[in-house]
Amino acid sequence: MSSNEIPLAQSFVLPCGLKLSNRIVKASMEEMLGNSDNQPNEYIYRLYQRWANVSFGLLLTGNVQVDDRYPGIMTDMMIPSKDKIDIEKWKKYADICQSHGTPTIVQINHAGRQSLSGKRPLLERAIAPSPVSLSFGNNPFVRTLQRLALGTPKEMTRAQIDETIEKFVEAAELMFKAGFAGVELHGSHGYLISSFLSPKTNRRQDEYGATPKDRIRFLLRIIDAIRAVVPSTFAVGVKLNSADYSTGGLTEDEAYDQIRWIDDHGGIDFIEISGGTYEAPAMAGSEDDRRSERTKKREAYFIEFAAKVRNTTKIPLIVTGGFRTREGMNDAIVSNACDFVGIARPVCIQFNLPQILLDPTIPDKDARALQYDIRGSSIFSLIPIPGSRSSCGIVWYNWQMQRVAIENREPDPTLSIHGKLLTVLFKKTKKIIPFFVLLCALWYASLLKEFILNFRMNK
Fold first, then answer.
1. Angle at the Cα of 101 (from 106 to 30), degrees rounded to 5?
2. What confidence tens digit (pLDDT) does each residue in 339-364 have?
3. Residues paired with 186 in a beta bridge
4. Are residues 298 and 443 in the same domain?
């Protein structure tokens, strides 16, 4: 098979003029490598140096929070206030990602109601289109944890909507100045933009939620505001849910309409198709996979939806999630279900996977992602939280990224979740023990002092 016969190897030019050498996209993952200032650092540089050199057509970074008051987690990459931005760190990040010619696009995000407590003042709540809290079931323990960690968000005022749009604009401007090829707006998985798009979480009765078309206004305003300040050659994409997969959430028909409206509106260079929220994590792979056998053979979780909307929009489509073989990826391209295939978790283990997929000397049966099991994950099915096992898998892949980035070691597909948890607990315990020893020593010293004083008084 020659390289010309591999659909994945074909080049593509986005509407903004950005040329991609092939159809394989390194999809976004949450690296959890932020340090004290949550800006790029030696760990993120080391990780992306590996991905920059393995023949992807496009790199999408992990999500970067546009407002450091509302992080998804405390180790996210974040954009701080203007007086604290270190542009040189972002420039170095862009240079490393693109050091071998692969254009890199930064995924920018606002966690919205999924923002954990931590950076905000104690009683300040997260913000969202409507005051709808996350729900992980009726287990009392889980509901207590949810209230403590997330709580109920407060409904955004128009002033807060305007301010948040400006935060997205500032993020896009920063990425342009740093030298990245574009930005992707994270509009899926239940984060802020996604919350505006979903009827479950957007119950407003104003121009941002009164009708299905009003729910997309927030996203369209962000697109227009970014387009007003960056060159036409700077790519702007969006990641959207095909559905929320939860009762009352966004349906496929509604998602279909949203893509049609975005197409009519213009200003977008690509759409990445995903699905689910952290209440129903379809993007992590379903623990109860009810897809038809035909769909399973096509591998990708959201390929059928992409094929459905393909005739609705001229905007290039990326489908991420589930792809494992060159045959499955080629089929997606040849059938015109999508223009690009996004790969995430497999390349945390097998960094050279794109090179294998593009190598015409490797037969199709061998051009596939490494097969392995996540040892120790089955026990997490017993946890009474939806998607616990698949979410645990996400953490396992994150450990693999940290092996490369922090420990400067190769990934380990044999890594056991149980073993890793014990190691983490042991390390944490070692840090805690000196603190408890100090407390005991102080307690003992106070008792000794009191004993001596009493002894002298009674002498």
1. 30
2. 999 999 999 999 999 999 999 999 99
3. 239
4. no
